[in-house]
Design a protein that fits this description.
432 residues, alpha/beta, Aspartate Aminotransferase, domain 1, Aspartate Aminotransferase, domain 2, 2 domains, seven-stranded mixed β-sheet, four-stranded antiparallel β-sheet, 12 helices, globular, binds pyridoxal-5'-phosphate
Length: 432
């Protein structure tokens, strides 16, 4: 049995442990929700303050040039590229994940329409994050295509045929943490003559990603999760250079124009990925996002994402094992994949009947104890879903091994003391 002392020893020997100093975490909090909203970097406050007081307050509109505001989408894009196996000049930061998906899925569908109009299926997983499915529905309707949803990763193979237009997959599932093999699926989709779109919302900054190595076609991802960009931070978008110049993305705003400051009446897309920018960048949010991305780049001298992945796997394996050992007899099961190569940076637990309906309240009781995870509902009638999930994200940048140990002990106490029965833990808030 692993003891707390064992975990403290692991922390003491962890070469990545000092990276935690970059984050502002309230004392007494074990933050296991960095997969939903990353923690705040220490640097962010002063940087945003500088943008406010100096760049905006003093230098006013000159800052578009003097402070480089205009370059923020490409400058931060280049930094994110280093985390996802993309090259410089291949990624821009803009808009939200939902909007960027709209852009790349439309671009992919337009390309397929031109090259292979008989292909009409956009395939995704029913368990994908809802916004991806909703955007997919809208585009399928608009272009006379079908959004086909599969109920298991294995079922994807049945759709690798000459009707497949686009395979639209979230690399790490937001609910279960299950990780797809991007290179293998991309290869299979290409063999079938289709294009791929990868949502990296739960991958960028969480697991090593190699878009170039996987020969992927398009990718999008989120700034406020593992990239620590702050609530509602802008998102990023990547198109393989072989596609970036090919079709206009549909949101042809002036900032994606080849020469925005010529103010011409006709749209002429900028070369490459810059055309995926739509309007004026949100400078304050971008400044915060850059601080977040920098916290991950700070790991580069220590081995970068590969080293973070090793730690992440050790953390998630430890959590899953301790949860089973300490809380298995209390009805806790691990529903994330136990095989390392199939798991992202989170572990989801479920409670066996009759406790399953206490799942939300158990998470609330943990939060009151300072262990912040979240609860994800689901549809009990669906084969692909465990309906009540207790979700815990392990951000290797700032979560340690003793945190894992303590979190499981808190869970043990919440269950043995039946704290979840208290009425205040059973009031559903607007955001779960
Ligand atoms: C978090 C997440 C999003 C979020 O989209 P927004 O436009 O930022 O609200 C989209 N897709 C996936 C897979 C996510 O996990």
């Amino acid at each position: 049995m692993t003891t707390r002392q064992d975990c403290q020893a692991l922390d003491a020997a962890d070469p990545l442990a000092p990276l935690r100093q970059q984050m502002l975490l309230p004392p007494g909090v074990i933050y296991l929700d960095g997969n939903s909203l990353g923690a705040m970097p220490v640097a962010t406050s002063a940087r945003v303050q500088q943008v406010l007081t100096q760049e905006w307050g003093q230098d006013l509109i000159k800052s578009w040039n003097t402070a480089g505001w205009i370059d923020l989408p490409t400058r931060i894009g280049d930094k994110i590229a280093r985390l996802i196996g993309a090259g410089p000049g291949e990624v821009v930061v803009a808009d939200s994940t939902s909007l960027n998906l709209y852009k790349v899925l439309t671009a992919a569908v337009r390309m397929i329409k031109a090259d292979a109009p008989h292909r009409t299926a956009i395939v995704s997983e029913r368990s994908n994050f809802p916004t991806d499915l909703y955007i997919g529905q809208s585009i399928a309707e608009q272009y006379g295509m079908r959004l086909v949803l599969v109920d298991s990763p294995e079922e994807i193979a049945a759709h690798l045929n000459d009707e497949l237009a686009v395979l639209m997959i979230t690399e790490v599932n937001y609910r279960t943490g299950a990780w797809h093999d991007m290179a293998a699926l991309t290869h299979a989709a290409h063999e079938a003559g289709a294009l791929t779109i990868w949502d990296l919302a739960h991958s960028a900054g969480a697991v090593p990603v190699d878009l170039t190595g996987a020969h992927a076609d398009f990718a999008i991802g989120c700034g406020y999760k593992y990239l620590n960009g702050g609530p509602g931070a802008p998102a990023f978008v990547w198109a393989h250079p072989r596609h970036a110049d090919r079709f206009w993305q549909p949101l042809s705003g002036w900032m994606g124009h080849a020469s925005p400051f010529e103010f011409t009446p006709d749209y002429r897309p900028a070369p490459g990925i810059r055309r995926y920018i739509c309007g004026t960048p949100p400078v304050l949010s971008m400044a915060a996002l850059e601080c977040g991305v920098d916290t991950l780049l700070a790991a580069e001298p220590l081995g970068g994402m590969a080293a973070l992945r090793v730690k992440s796997l050790a953390l998630t394996e430890l959590f899953a094992r301790l949860a089973e050992d300490r809380c298995g007899a209390l009805g806790v099961t691990v529903v994330s994949p136990r095989e390392a190569e199939r798991r992202g940076s989170q572990v989801c637990l479920a409670l066996k009947p009759p406790l399953e309906h206490a799942s939300y309240a158990v998470v609330q009781a943990l939060i009151e104890r300072g262990v912040i995870g979240d609860y994800r509902a689901g549809d009990a009638s669906r084969l692909d879903q465990v309906p009540h999930i207790l979700r815990f994200g392990f951000t290797p940048l700032y979560v340690g091994f003793a945190d894992v140990f303590d979190a499981v002990e808190h869970l043990h106490q919440v269950l043995t003391r039946e704290e979840w029965r208290e009425a205040r833990f059973n009031q559903k808030a607007a955001v779960t």
